[in-house]
Amino acid sequence: MKKGNTIKEMYHEERPYEKCEHFGAEHLTDAELLAVILRTGTRGENSLDLARRLLHPDFGNPGLHNIHQWTMEQLMHVRGIGKVKAIQIRCLSELSKRLAREAAAEGLDFSSPTTIARYYMEDMRHKNREVLKLLLLNTRSRLIGETNVSIGTVDMALVSPRELFIEAFQKNASAIILLHNHPSGDPTPSREDVRITRRVYEAGMMIGIELLDHIIIGNNCFVSMKEKGFFQQKGS
């Protein structure tokens, strides 16, 4: 197929709609699936060409993962993408996150770092800035609330144990969990991560609201600081 041909000019069995109808959606490539959502292309470029261009932008790594990185403003600066298509793509991104979270919710156990990380993974790993979440639990280790404590670099200038525990007291929480992402994709704790974790843990032990874990989300990977032993007192 020469670039610039319309979808109708493609062989019937190569058209994304017909291919899905006859063989099933699982047989479509990422670009073909996106082309079905886009429906139309632009002058000199069909929907499949446009989809391929979105999946291989000038920034970031190529692939379906990039769909989560596009903002409305960025999308609307792409030739062939107007407001309607930009909204469709943003909604597709959000829907995929919610589907993943819904599936992970079935096995969610707040005593298990693995299930917690799986539940928040799709939402957290695509963010281009660090977001620190505070999870509030009751005496039965059930979630009674969550809030974003800070957005941006997680450091002691933005996060203090006092602010965290005020929130916990207001919600009558018996325990808390901290959760944040590393946009680099590497969940290895930084020195500041260790400092925050130890300060919050020690403050919680004094006032009777235990920090159960601090989980750092990377790109399809995570670190539980509790499991890595960062909660131990110095000299222990």
Structural class, judged by helices and strands? alpha+beta
CATH topology of the largest domain: Cytidine Deaminase, domain 2
N to C succession of SSEs: HHHHHHEEHEHEE
The end-to-end span amounts to 68 Å
Task: Please tally the β strands and state the result.
Answer: 5
Helix content: 25-40%
What is the gyration radius calculated from CA atoms? 22 Å
User: β content, as a range?
Assistant: 5-15%
Tell me the count of domains.
Answer: 2
CATH class of the largest domain: Alpha Beta
Q: Give unreliable regions as ranges.
A: none
How are the strands of the largest sheet arranged? 2-1-3-4-5
Mass-distribution shape:
elongated
CATH-scheme architecture of the largest domain: 3-Layer(aba) Sandwich
The total count of helices amounts to 8
Average pLDDT score? 86
In CATH, the homologous superfamily of the largest domain goes by the name Cytidine Deaminase, domain 2
Report the oligomer. Answer: single chain
The major sheet is characterized as:
5 strands, mixed
What can you see in these coordinates?
- The chain has about 240 residues and is of the alpha+beta class.
- It has 2 domains: about 5-100, DNA polymerase, domain 1, CATH 1.10.150; about 105-225, Cytidine Deaminase, domain 2.
- About 40% of the residues lie in helices and about 15% in strands.
- It is built from 8 helices and 5 strands, in the order ααααααββαβαββ.
- It has helices spanning about 15-25, 30-40, 45-55, 70-75, 85-105, 115-125, 160-170, 190-205, and strands at about 130-135, 145-150, 175-180, 210-215, 220-225.
- The chain has a 5-stranded mixed sheet with strand order 2-1-3-4-5.
- Helix 2 (about 30-40) crosses helix 3 (about 45-55) and helix 5 (about 85-105) runs antiparallel to helix 6.
